[in-house]
Design a protein that fits this description.
Strand content: 25-35%
CATH architecture of the largest domain: 3 Solenoid
Order of helices and strands: EEEEEEEEEEEEEEEEEEHHH
CATH class of the largest domain: Mainly Beta
Structural class: alpha/beta
Largest sheet: 5 strands, parallel
Shape: globular
Number of strands: 18
Radius of gyration: 21 Å
Helix content: 10-25%
Number of domains: 2
CATH topology of the largest domain: UDP N-Acetylglucosamine Acyltransferase, domain 1
Oligomer: single chain
CATH superfamily of the largest domain: Hexapeptide repeat proteins
């Protein structure tokens, strides 16, 4: 299993208060990302020797979570500022072949009986500023867009697709609402604050404390003020 993260990774933080439960990744700006111990599993429920995990700064998965890889080609991509609850399940299993006489993998018996290779599972992508509640199960090929909330206990089926800033719940997970009106969602996606340096976030910390749903017009004006000033044509 290969782990990829930001280019300014400093290293592990063994003295961090959470280090007994997590692998704590420290970045040059002082931020951290946390991965629980015993996160990676293979079909034998052992440490996965294959697969790729990409995780951005300030993202964490809760204790008791697991990622099951079944193929070296599988990838789980987690963006920045993703908050994952406890006991999450990322089941990135290889798919079964349903068009042959049997779904059974005869080759595992090692008695000279072959089977066709199972179709490869699709990659899983979780973008930025996503909140995932406890005990959510996510299957391969899922795409969670920026700003989403996944309610606790939800199941994201294979090939799941969300909308930015949507709120999803259930088994299978369905859209139950949006965090903000469409105009604010558009402005937030244009701002893409998760791509800003930590110094920018600190400088504009007051905006992160506001209730953006109280006054739509005032919110849009405030978000517009955070955009770089346009350069006049000469």
């Amino acid at each position: 299993m290969e782990l990829f993260t930001e280019n300014d990774l400093v290293g592990l933080e063994p003295e961090h208060p959470w280090a007994h439960e997590f692998e704590v990744l420290r970045f040059a700006d002082g931020s951290v990302s946390c991965l629980p111990n015993h996160l990676f599993h293979d079909p034998l429920d052992e440490g996965a020797p294959v697969g790729e995990l990409h995780i951005g700064r300030c993202s964490s998965l809760g204790s008791g979570s697991l990622i099951k890889f079944a193929s070296e080609t599988q990838k789980l991509n987690i963006g920045r500022f993703v908050t994952g609850g406890m006991r999450l399940r990322f089941l990135l299993n290889g798919r079964y072949e349903s068009r042959t006489l049997s779904t059974y993998l005869f080759a595992v018996q090692n008695v000279g009986v072959r089977n066709v290779s199972a179709p490869a599972a699709d990659d899983c992508l979780i973008k930025n500023d996503v909140w995932i509640g406890d005990e959510v199960t996510i299957l391969s090929g899922s795409l969670i867009e920026n700003g989403c909330i996944i309610e606790p206990g939800s199941l994201l089926p294979r090939g799941f697709r969300s909308e930015p800033y949507g709120i999803y719940a259930g088994n299978p997970a369905r859209l139950v609402g949006f965090r903000f009106p469409a105009s604010i969602r558009t402005a937030l996606l244009e701002l893409a604050w998760w791509d800003k340096p930590m110094a920018w976030i600190k400088a504009h910390n007051d905006v992160f404390l506001l209730d953006l749903t109280v006054d739509e017009k005032a919110t849009l004006e405030r978000l517009k003020s955070l955009q770089p000033a346009s350069v006049s044509a000469e």
